[in-house]
Amino acid sequence: MNSIWFFEDSNLFKLLCPHKFKAYQETHEFEDYKKSDYIYFEEDSANKIYLIEKGKVKIGYYSEDGGEVIKAILTKGEIFGEKAILGENKRTEFAQSVDTLTSICPIGVDTMHELMRDNESFSLKIYKFIGMRFKRLERRLHLLLFKDTKTRLLEFFNELKEDYGTQCEHTGDVIIRHPYTQKDIANLIGTSRPTLNIIMNELKDNDQIDFNRKEIRMKMAI
Q1: From CA 208, how far away is CA 199, in angstroms rounded?
Q2: SS3 sequence, the chain?
Q3: For the chain, what is the radius of gyration of the CA atoms?
Q4: What is the pLDDT of residues 155-176, one digit of tens each?
Q5: CA distance linking residue 200 with residue 153, whole number of Å
Q6: Could you give the dihedral angle defined by the CA atoms of residues 56, 192, 190 and 79, in that order, rounded to the nearest 10 degrees?
Q7: Within 10 Å of residue 214's Cβ, how many Cβ atoms?
Q8: What pLDDT sits at residue 222?
Q9: Which phi-psi region, left, alpha or beta, contains residue 214 (left: φ > 0; alpha: ψ -120 to 50)?
Q10: What is the pLDDT of residues 46-103, one digit of tens each?
Q11: Are 104 and 38 in contact (CB under 8 A)?
């Protein structure tokens, strides 16, 4: 199963990082962040996009009451800050490292526009990626507003199945090897870890899934 976050089985880091292009190699540097370091804050200038070479990045914003709302947790090969390509001048969200060491490949907006102008096929892929990400975030927001926690979790499993799932030839089960912790999953579906554990164990008791720290096995269509 091919992930919508990846193009033609090549992650975005491998496809886009300026380090690949001779014109940018000498001036391009990676940026390293420790756990809890912010890459950018809300209201910061939006003059770069970023590719994750290593680690994980949390994308979110703060509600009026000060609560943290997590929009996405991204991993190696994924892109963020992409709204700058469309003309966003200031960030409407924050980006924060959630791994002990996260390595980022920054790309200036002007550089990205040059790459897109030079390659029409590449440009179309970028716009397709942005459109698909917006669609997914819109769907997740709808779930947070209108659906119960179990429904949100099942929908998230379906996303994981699209992105990381492989089907077992012998049993027909879908095996999902994913990079998320239980805390990540709880944040993404807007619930607490204890509630998440209760629902996952309920699904396991009903023989719908089995799971461990890095793998979920979907035993039937859910």
Answers
A1: 11
A2: CCCCCCECCECHHHHHCHHHCHHHHCCCCCEEEECCCEEECCCCECCEEEEEEECCEEEEEECCCCCEEEEEEECCCCEECHHHHHCCCECCCEEEECCCEEEEEEEEHHHHHHHHHHCHHHHHHHHHHHHHHHHHHHHHHHHHHHCCHHHHHHHHHHHHHHHHEEECCCCCCEEEECCCCHHHHHHHHCCCHHHHHHHHHHHHHCCCEEECCCEEEECCCC
A3: 18
A4: 999 989 988 899 988 888 999 9
A5: 9
A6: 0
A7: 11
A8: 47
A9: alpha
A10: 999 998 888 999 999 988 888 888 888 998 878 899 999 999 999 999 999 999 999 9
A11: no
Q: Model confidence at 24, in pLDDT bands (50, 70, 90)? A: low
Amino acid at 195: T
**pLDDT in the model for residue 130:** 84
Determine the pLDDT at residue 23. 55
Both tokens of 185, joined, read 């999953």
What's the pLDDT band for 115 if we cut at 50, 70, 90? confident
pTM: 0.76
Please name the residue that has the structure tokens 């012998």: 170
Please tell me the predicted confidence (pLDDT) of residue 1. 31
